[in-house]
Amino acid sequence: MTCEEVRELLPEHLLSALDETTDMAVRRHLRGCAACREERMKLEEGVAALSHAVHDQEPPEELRARVLRALDEEWEEPGPVPAAPRPPTPSQRRSVWTAVAAAIAIVLVAGSITWGATQSHRANLATADAGSYRSLLGFLGGKEFRVGAIQPSTGSSVSGRVVLYDGDATKGWSSWGLVMVKAPGYDGEARVTLLGPDGDTYAWPPFHIHDGEGDAWIVTHQDMTDYDRLTITTSDGTVVGSAAIHAA
Amino acid sequence: MKAFAGRDERAAGVLYDRFASRIYGLGIVMLGNDGSAQDLVQDTFVKLVRTAERFDPVRGRLETWVLLTARSLAIDALRRRVLEARSLHAIGVPREDDPSPGPEEMATVADLSSRARRAMAVLSAEQRSALELAYFGGRTTAEVAALEGIPQGTVKTRIRAALLRLREEMAKEADHDV
User: Fold this and answer.
1) First CA to last CA across chain A, in angstroms?
2) What does the domain layout of chain B look like in residue ranges?
């Protein structure tokens, strides 16, 4: 990303109106570009000026005690302070197709994999739902659904599930994939890379793991049929988990 | 901020004194009544506690982080209000808690609106509109572009120019005060 591109995106970056991938690219550029950081600082001062000029209003005096009491209660709760649920922001808005793909993936995951279910229960569910899968496949005009369970690398406790949908590119349909990751204790950037038997790789855009949980999805016209494994890597390139992908 | 993240009550008081008035004012402007504005202040500080460890001063100013956290919560509250109103309207149930402001709140809102008009007067009408829709309305630049019937690039340029102009005006005022 060039300085010019980043500067054009800075207002949206500042107002949290960028999608996760673009925002991450902007942040990456800012880390290594003092001139663009300077530009962002000027815009931040503009936001501060706006707030001073437009909405500086003393609240009722009793509010101070009420807020500090709420913070006390928050701090008194046992265990680590839980992360606040992230509200939907404009930056999280996805395209309609992405949302549809994700929704279908979630239905599939809920129906066929079911987190925490026993192996036998999972097998029964998969068998019972096989007819539905075929109907859905016929409706979508796709080739196949594939799934996989993410296994931790040595010294890691990563787990997760993978669903890939191979669309029929000859009919103009895209393929998509969803990866859900649990990485207790990890908070940071991660990446999914699909691997093929011939050494081919397909790296998805980076995604973020917050408080040990994260998910990545992709909708693409690239043919993913030949990829039969994937890895999860952290931002420093360490492989923390992998999965074999097989037919659902 | 480090002390706040470390659960220091005194730091919480300092942070409150520094930012509460602007969060409360933002709540009044965006949500339109005292109760919602007070809730916004409380919710913002609780969220700041829960996310304090993620704050990185290298990535941005504390002030912007606090204000944009409050703005994001206010936008969520507005969206919830719209959804709730739609659901109740759909099943024909009137709202029990009328969020419309009372006379005192109306006066506060009017005062803030008048100050806002004065502050924004340095901006062109186009810059003002783009900034208001994006900052207070929580609209993306694509949405502002569609509403205004202009290219998205123009919206970005207007917001950027508006923020830089406000910064410049603030600096002038500070010089004048010295």
Assistant:
1) 38
2) 1-101, 122-178
Number of compact structural domains in chain A: 2
Tens digit of pLDDT for each residue in B26-42? Answer: 898 888 888 999 999 99
ipTM of the complex, rounded to two decimals: 0.74
pTM: 0.52
The answer to whether the Cβ–Cβ distance between A8 and B156 falls below 8 Å is yes
A116 closest CA partner among A161, A58, A50: A161
Number of H helices, E strands in chain A: 6, 10
Inter-residue contact A30 to A14 (CB < 8 Å) = no
What whole-number distance in Å separates Cα of residue A103 and Cα of residue A211?
23
What amino acid occupies position B32?
Answer: G
Taking the CA of residue A241 and the nearest CA in chain B, the distance in Å comes to 25
Report yes or no: A86 at the B interface, CB cutoff 8 Å: no
For domain B1-101, the question of CATH label 1.10.10.10 is answered with no
* Of A12-21, B39-48, B51-60, B98-107, minimum mean pLDDT range: B98-107
Are A216 and A207 a contacting pair, CB within 8 Å? yes
Largest separation between any pair of C-alpha atoms in chain B: 60
Q: How far apart are CA A37 and CA A17, in angstroms?
A: 18
Chain B within 8 Å of A209 (Cβ-Cβ)? no
What is the per-residue pLDDT across A83-108, written as a single tens digit (0 to 9) for each? 444 444 343 444 444 444 444 444 44
Statement: B122-178 belongs to CATH 3.10.450.70:
no
Does residue B80 belong to the interface with chain A, where contact is any CB pair within 8 Å? no
Alpha helix locations (H) across A115-209? 119-140
Structure tokens belonging to residue A28? 């990456």
Q: Which whole-number Å values give the CA distances from A81 to A75, A163, B52, B132, in the listed order? A: 7, 32, 10, 35
Boundary-marking domain end, from A93, A126, A147: A93
**Structural domain range at position A225:** 95-247
Length of chain B: 178
